[in-house]
């Protein structure tokens, strides 16, 4: 596994990834290396190919050209559940919680791939199954506390305020024990305080859980505040990459995306 510029091994390496829909090239020969234990952001105007790029990583789409390596292993051709089992989790632009379930139950769903009890255990309830369930519930409560929802496990997911629902989605993703977490516009719809809280949580994911975080985000204050590396897509092509300051001062980015608003702009 090669080392990135900051000395960390590369967690995810996209190599000339291309995805087409009919005559439209949504992602055009994009190459990005994301070091371990960093927060990397992918930004760009609407229609730049950001979510399509995410979907290629997670197996929802298969790229026509190029390769995507996760810890040195190609992801191309694997189904989303197999990629999740390798250690990649994600959230979505639109909240996708199970509305009829409690917060705790939503997080337990995220643990499913790591639980060993099958149909036999569910029916006959041997001590090993009971112990595993107790451990899973304890771990789920710890995840809820980590994301800022201590003691909220028994609440219906939909009864939790909007910002808390966003954090609950992250807790559910964490329950799958990922090494790479993809967050698709996690602060969308949040007020400034909720946004600040989530920025702090993203930094804790990197610093305390040693996760690699790949972020799509329109709020430039978030991008510039939490990112170690920023890659800019424009009409499916990567036009710039570097530290937040380097990207912010790149004339191509200013022209294509940021405009005169600088770090205060939105896409």
Highest CATH level, the class of the largest domain: Alpha Beta
Compute the average pLDDT.
89
Main beta-sheet strand count, sense and barrel state: 6 strands, mixed
What is the fourth-level CATH superfamily of the largest domain? P-loop containing nucleotide triphosphate hydrolases
Describe the protein.
The chain is built from 10 helices and 10 strands. It has helices at 50-57, 80-86, 103-110, 119-124, 127-146, 162-174, 192-207, 220-226, 244-248, 251-258; strands at residues 10-21, 24-35, 39-43, 65-70, 73-74, 88-90, 180-184, 212-216, 229-234, 237-242. It starts with 9 loop residues before the first strand and ends in a 9-residue tail after the last helix. The strands form 2 sheets. Strands 6-7-8-3-9-10 form a 6-stranded mixed sheet, with helices on both faces. The protein has 2 domains: 1-87 and 178-267, Rossmann fold (3-Layer(aba) Sandwich); 100-175, no CATH class.
Keywords:
Rossmann fold; disordered C terminus; 6-stranded mixed beta sheet; alpha/beta; 4-stranded antiparallel beta sheet; 267 residues; 10 helices; 2 domains
Question: What's the layout of helices and strands?
Answer:
Blueprint: E1 10-21, E2 24-35, E3 39-43, H1 50-57, E4 65-70, E5 73-74, H2 80-86, E6 88-90, H3 103-110, H4 119-124, H5 127-146, H6 162-174, E7 180-184, H7 192-207, E8 212-216, H8 220-226, E9 229-234, E10 237-242, H9 244-248, H10 251-258
Parallel strand pairs: 3-8, 3-9, 6-7, 7-8
Antiparallel strand pairs: 1-2, 1-4, 4-5, 9-10
Helix pairs in contact: 3-5, 3-6, 5-6
């Amino acid at each position: 596994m090669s080392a990135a510029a900051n000395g960390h091994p590369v967690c995810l390496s996209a190599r000339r990834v291309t995805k087409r829909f009919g005559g439209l090239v949504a992602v055009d020969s994009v190459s990005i290396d994301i070091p371990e234990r960093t927060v990397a952001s992918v930004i760009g105007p609407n229609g730049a190919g950001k979510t399509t790029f995410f979907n290629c990583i997670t197996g929802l789409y298969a790229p026509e050209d190029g390769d995507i390596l996760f810890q040195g292993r190609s992801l191309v051709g694997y189904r989303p559940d197999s990629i999740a089992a390798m250690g990649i989790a994600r959230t979505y632009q639109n909240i996708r919680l199970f509305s009829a379930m409690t917060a705790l139950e939503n997080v337990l769903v995220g643990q499913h791939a790591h639980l060993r009890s099958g149909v036999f255990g569910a029916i006959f309830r041997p001590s090993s199954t009971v112990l595993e369930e107790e451990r899973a519930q304890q771990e789920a409560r710890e995840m809820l506390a980590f994301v800022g929802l201590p003691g909220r496990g028994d609440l219906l997911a939909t009864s939790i305020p909007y910002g808390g629902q966003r954090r609950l989605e992250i807790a559910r993703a964490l329950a799958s024990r990922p090494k790479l977490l993809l967050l698709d516009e996690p602060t969308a719809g949040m007020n400034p305080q909720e946004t600040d809280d989530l920025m702090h949580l993203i930094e804790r994911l990197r610093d305390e859980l040693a996760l690699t975080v790949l972020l799509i985000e329109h709020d430039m204050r978030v991008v510039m505040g939490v990112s170690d590396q920023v890659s800019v897509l424009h009409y499916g092509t990567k036009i710039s990459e570097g530290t937040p300051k380097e990207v912010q001062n790149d004339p191509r980015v200013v022209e294509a995306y940021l405009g005169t608003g600088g770090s205060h702009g939105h896409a």
